[in-house]
Write a structure and sequence with these properties.
The protein has 291 residues and is α+β, with helices and mostly antiparallel strands. Helices cover 25% and strands 34% of the residues. The strands form two sheets. Strands 3, 4, 5, 6, 7, 8, 9, 10, 11, 12 and 13 form an eleven-stranded antiparallel beta sheet that branches. The protein is globular.
Length: 291
């Protein structure tokens, strides 16, 4: 799901820092409470960030050590290396629709670089491209939004874009998402969701199709509507080690039973995909080490 996160996060960091993300980012606030609709009369609340703003070095270190205690040592997890480990946790989300059970994906890792590099449009584009693989995306124009009677709340803080990519080589996804960013003195946060207003849009629909492989060829099955997916990504400066950034992303999405026909591919294939994307992001950050 890192692909989903990065393609939607194509925003320019140009506004002034806010005091906190909940007051500055209405989409993020709504994901925390009341949560993401994932079925009839069912919503899923997102967890609060693992690493809040405003902590000193000792408290930051204690929280990270507690997070990784069953998997990695602190020295190993914070190692300044492209191949340092990342922590991935997969979970089922309840309640949800039995025909499209909700899944949670949480990822944490350390990167090294200058958080101010996010203010640079060219760097942000490279970071996005590093994580999106074969996916493609585009921001919708003002004219396209006006045609649908949609107006952005703040053009410097919000964007709506369409993404299209293959997920785990089994499902072809098309979705139009809304993303809202905010930043404080300590961190940057991007929240995004599949916009339900585009569920049956003729040009930019939210839909999925099975990837069918026959005789060495691939084709797409019939299109089915898809809704119920959101994320937030938070990048926090660490007081130490020098130049370290704590990256956490939390994703909840509906997984229609037709995607994998009952096979549990998330646990077998997603870790490898996430690892590749994390390493690509680290390589881009390394080109902007800061002072």
């Amino acid at each position: 799901m890192l692909v989903f996160v990065l393609v939607l996060a194509s925003l320019l960091m140009t506004a002034h820092a806010a005091t906190d993300h909940e007051s500055a980012n209405p989409l993020y606030r709504s994901l925390l409470d009341p949560g993401l609709p994932v079925g009839a009369n069912a919503t899923a609340k997102f967890p609060k960030p693992t690493l809040p703003d405003g902590l000193d070095a000792a408290r930051q270190t204690a929280i990270i050590k507690d997070l990784i205690k069953d998997d990695y040592s602190y020295a190993e997890f914070t190692r300044k290396s492209v191949v340092a480990p990342q922590l991935l946790k997969l979970r089922d989300v309840a309640p949800s629709d039995p025909k499209a059970p909700a899944r949670g994906v949480d990822v944490w890792f350390i990167a090294y670089g200058d958080i101010k590099a996010l203010d640079d449009e060219k760097f942000l584009e490279k970071l996005i491209n590093a994580g999106k693989g074969e996916g493609k995306g585009q921001a919708l124009t003002k004219q396209e939004l006006a045609k649908r009677k949609i107006k952005l709340g703040d053009e410097k803080q919000e964007t709506i874009g369409h993404i299209e990519f293959d997920f785990l080589e089994k499902v072809h996804l098309k979705a139009t998402g809304r993303a809202v960013w905010s930043k404080t003195d300590d961190s940057v946060l991007v929240a995004g969701e599949i916009d339900p207003r585009f569920l049956n849009d003729p040009e930019y629909p939210n839909q999925w199709q099975s990837i069918i492989k026959e005789g060495g060829m691939s084709k797409l099955g019939p299109a089915s509507p898809w809704s119920g997916a959101a994320f937030y990504l938070k990048i926090t400066k660490l007081a130490e080690p020098t130049g370290a950034l704590f990256v956490e992303q939390h994703v909840i999405f509906a997984e229609p039973t037709g995607w994998f026909n009952g096979a549990n591919l998330l646990r077998s294939k997603l870790p490898i995909a996430v690892q590749m994307n994390v390493r690509s992001m680290r390589r881009e950050w390394a080109k902007h080490p800061g002072k």
